[in-house]
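Annual report, structural modelling task.

Input specification for the adenosine-5'-diphosphate complex:
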Amino acid sequence: MVEGWLLSMIGHSLNDFFSINDAQPDADGFIEAVLLPLAETVVYPNMVTPLMLEREADIAAVGEAQIRRETVIGVLMRGNEIAAPTAENLYTLGTEMALGRLMHLPDGGTSVLAQGRRRVQIVEFLQTSPYIRVRARPIAEDVSETREVAALMRATLSLFQKCVELSPQLPEEAYVYALNIEHPGWLADMVSSTLDLPLTERQRLLETTDPVERLRRVSSLLGRELEMLELEESIQSQVRREVDRNQREMFLREQMRVIQHELGEADIFQQELDELRQRIEQKEMTPEAKDKALKELARLTMIPPMAPEVGIIRTYLDWLLDLPWVTQSEDNLDLAHAARVLDAEHYGLIKAKERILEHMAVRQLAGEAMKTPILCFVGPPGTGKTSLGKSIAQALGREFVRVSLGGVHDEAEIRGHRRTYIGALPGRIIQTMRKVGTINPVFMLDEIDKLGVDFHGDPAAALLEVLDPEQNHAFSDHYLDVSYDLSHVFFITTANYLDPIPPALLDRMEVIEFPGYVEDEKVSIARHFLIPRQLKQHGLGDSGVHFEEEAIRLICREYTYEAGVRNLEREIGKVCRKLARRVAEGKRATKRITAEKLTKFLGPPLFLPWLREESDEVGVATGLAWTEAGGDIMAIEVTLMPGKGNLLLTGQLGDVMQESAQAALSYTRSQARQLGIDPEEFDRVDIHVHLPEGAIPKDGPSAGITLATAMISALTQRKVRRDVAMTGEITLRGRVLPVGGVREKVLTAHRAGVRQVLLPKRNEKDLVEIPKRVLRGLDVQLVSHMDEVLAYALLPPDATGAAGAGHVSKLPRNDNGE
Ligand code: ADP
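The model returned the following structure:
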């Protein structure tokens, strides 16, 4: 549309060229003229526009008008594919225009310059062939020069000025030209001829015959145009800035390249790249990993040596190159050899050893098709889980690695961080695989029961992928970004407890329990494994030092307190150290370590046997607990004080244990009469329950019957047998419900030298897991109601402590004859 204003300027200077006069109206004010249908443009008054003439009829019409030196009327067609326009497909408002000479163009077309003169309204079609002739009424445009019109013109001009500044197509002269127009209608026409508008909009502006109205509309269109131009400008300048920066960077890089070349550094980089390529080509990898490595190498060659990505890509490539992808150690499936290795290092642990030998047998028959089992070793610390894992690796001829999961609560620790993170690394699994160097190690995941969960995602979910034989052949580490095959790894997890392990994980594993050892077993382990090893480690291998059995038993009983043998080994080590020093100092060292000599080496005993120096008391019952270290035995104490029936609990009792104490009290109150307690008593006293070793938190429902026994004892003043230990949950009706950890608890009771153990009847099934030897030395009673518990645990009321008297200040007398 630029031509419009440009040519209109030429038009002025070439006025002669258009020296055709406007048609003269007849008496009724109508004019008659040839109609030229326009397909692609709307001609505005005062504007010069080139027209293309395509149809023969149009050329003839124009020729005819020129011969007669008449103006023609240009009218827009409604649609542009019209072959023979008629009254129906023409708009009725057009422009009277003077035409210049017909010009024949080199491509065979014909064009003509048209100068718009005035708006005309077609009123009648006079002829339609060979061309159209019409009668029309010229439209006069009068405006009164109000201040509003002046303001509108000024506003339009100012918008137009801004458009001219921003638009690359409009030269500054356009604004100068507009500035010199005095008529609002003309200004509207001039401005609209410069805007890129759809034809219907142009026609609409033509039909807006009120000049002020038209100018208003044009100025709103101008506003819209200006917005577009501003947007365009801001986008362009952004693009320009970007391009400038890139060019600058390219220039600097090129300079740097030249400098590096001059300094010989580029050659070094190139050399390193070549070496990397060679390493990648020689390294045995999965096709996917090799592909990835080559791609990263290609990226590396494209960036300049000093770019920050270089380090990142090289570290990544190092990871790919250092990881074992296919390297395997060959399995030794010789069963006799394996059995020998396992027995040589470990006493007992029959179940675990058998499981390994079975696996090896199946492997021999089924070959690789057999999926490696995932074992979970569960038991207290020091029961040989880790060391058996090592022996398994040794028996199979595989590497052994160990990773602790304790406290891992971020999924990224298992699965790594994406490389987009600064300082990203693979997760622990892949890191360990790199360290071990083969794809089939025995991989021990320690403390799987101590996995945490927090906002960083669930590490258990990632572990699932590691431990699922269906998925772990394509384990995905975020850093590595290529799948890694873990299916050849022999995973063994370890835990102290089963409870905290997510069920989905537990489901994938075969649980093998490592029960605590009884004293006899400890003695055997010490004699056959721990002592020879410690002596050797302390350079006393063939010094003939001998630990007597009584000495070993004494260490087990009075210097250690554990289900496993870790501290036992430590104490033996201590004795060896003292001996070694004497030998080194050239003194005469004892060869026979007897029980009597132990205190000399180890100092006074650390733990006193449970029953020694303890007597039956009122308000003190013996409970069995299950802890991480195996089992534990504890006294639960209840004292009465003058008060108002409050229950006071101390010794760091967890919520469940507190509720258990409440339940025990409620049972006692509800059964007061049958138990021989004065119901009023409860309003006169406060009941204080204390669990010793107050700094250690305790929880769980299994102390229920012990709590009740201690309370009833305090309230009835009947003493509790100290050598009766018990465990069981209590209901409000006094029923005894089953509990967990029975084996550990019974072993503890045995270790502590308790005479009788009271267990819930429904735990009877757990007794099969307890070594016969232990059961032989204990009187285990299965109970299902509190009455039975009391019958076993309470002594008959004695003369001094009458039932129901419940007097607080009364101190129990030791009369059990010990
Ligand atoms: P865990 O992993 O269960 O905490 P460890 O495997 O670290 O226990 O065992 C602690 C120590 O006790 C090791 O030196 C181990 O050799 C020894 N040990 C444990 N059980 C046995 C056993 N049955 N026979 C021989 N040594 C044992």
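The radius of gyration is 51 Å.
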